[in-house]
Amino acid sequence: MNAWIPVLLITVLASAAGCSLSASSESSGASSESSARSSESSSKSSSPDSKESAYRDDVRDYTEAYAKSGGQFDAFQKRLGELARKYDVTNWEDSLATYEGVGAGLGRAKVRQSQVDAYKQNLGRGDPRKMDAIQNAYNAQS
Q: Would you tell me how many other CB atoms lie within 10 Å of the CB of residue 101?
């Protein structure tokens, strides 16, 4: 009977250690999850100006890459919509930040004025505010 005591003792200790480890990792996981939620809520509660600026910058970067590599214009517009959703921009087609980002991206890509004019026509659709936003942002980058 004495031979069973060390085995029982090892089993109890191992079991206790396992519970302790499990509780520790659960606590660590809960802490990480809480930290992620806190980070997410702080980014959502950031000022509208900083969100708009981040959106404009992403549009600029995407437009620059698109203008350099080419592709279908429909795919370009679809990606603009995806970027807008990422930043909670409910109507990217009415947001001047979209057109400012596009113009800045075209400027960084160093496209010709004729290409800028095509974007103004196809994306701005005759709206002078949108077309001016593209042109002014393009000019600022050139």
A: 29
pTM of the model: 0.67
Q: What is the DSSP string of the chain?
A: -TTHHHHHHHHHHHHHHHHHHHHHHHHHHHHHHHHHHHHHHHHHTS-HHHHHHHHHHHHHHHHHHHHHH---HHHHHHHHHHHHHHTT-S-GGG-HHHHHHHHHHHHHTT--HHHHHHHHHHHHTT-HHHHHHHHHHHHHH-
State whether 38 and 67 are in the same domain.
no
Q: What is the mean pLDDT of each run of 10 residues along the chain (142 residues)?
A: 43 41 38 36 56 96 95 94 94 96 98 97 95 98 84
Are both 64 and 123 inside the same structural domain? yes
